[in-house]
Structures are given as structure tokens and as C-alpha cells.
Predict the structure.
Amino acid sequence: MMVGHTVPGVVTGKPLSIGGSVGTRGSDRARLGICRRRSLQDEEISLRGATVAIQGFGNAGATAARLLADRKAKIIALSDTRGGVTNSRGIDPIKAIRYKERSGTVVGMPGASRISNEDLLTMKCDILVPAALESVITLQNAEAVKARIVAEAANGPTTPHATKFWARRGITIFAGHPRECRRRHGQLL
């Protein structure tokens, strides 16, 4: 729009038919996951056994769930546009993906209890992954977040005011483009 004609080289996530790349689905999230894993080591938090809540079980959230589960983290909550599910013993992301493909939602998944998106954001967990909506965490709900680490997978899920609040509380926020992989309130990693 800015140059008055189509410039597909500047658009990510394009279909193959208009110049997209094979194998890129989830690749940004995978690279960001690698940066986060390294950063967790800096924070002296092991992924093995870490409890994870993922708000937004679409492409980014499902990829994050699979990657974290592969590293032995325990996914304790997932949500999508219709609501969420929780199980303190853990949710298998592959089963959740299959269930969502059949039903269109994670809500009603066997072996899990229903939870609202709002409650998922504020549940006690080691890692919260907001993977769906922009500005879902604001100054109004930031104080209720109980996660030790917020690992953003969506574009701008945390408002600047919430980020400043968390910085004062010492909550680590992993944000930004995978090439940056930075702590929102700290140094470049």
C-alpha cells in the first residue's frame, strides 16, 4: 500500500503460490523458543517440569506447546477463542491439536477442566505464553499474573504500562523478534 503496488518480498507467512517459503510455519516461534531456553538458563529455571499456560492455541501457541513439551515442560493450560482447558497433571499438546482439529476448539477436551481466558492469564505457573492477541495483558490485569516468566509469542500481547509494572516486580518478559530475542526490560541476549 505504501508504494502503490504489491511487494510480496516484505510479507511474511505468504502462501507458496505467491512466493512463500517451505517449512517456515512456526519457524520464528522455534527460533524464539531457542532464545528463551537459553535465557531460562540465565534465570536458573529448568524447562524440565516447568509449568506452562498458553493463551492462544493457534499456530504460535501449538508450536510453543510442542516445543516446550519436547523439553519436558508441563503444559497445564491452553486456550483458544472459545475458552480454555486446564489439568495440573499436564496436557499432551499432540492430543490437544488433534482434538481441536476435530472439534474446532480445545474446550471440552477429555481429561481437562474448563477455564476462561482471563483465568488462564492469572493462574499460577512458571511460564505464561500469550500467543494470540495484542494488548491482552494490561496494567489492569498485570498485577494478577502469577507467572515467573512471560514468554510472548503473539505480537504485542503486553502493553507498555504492564511491562513497566512487571519490571518493577522482577518478572522476566521475553519479547521481540527472534533475531533480537531480548528481555523487554533488560539487555540484548
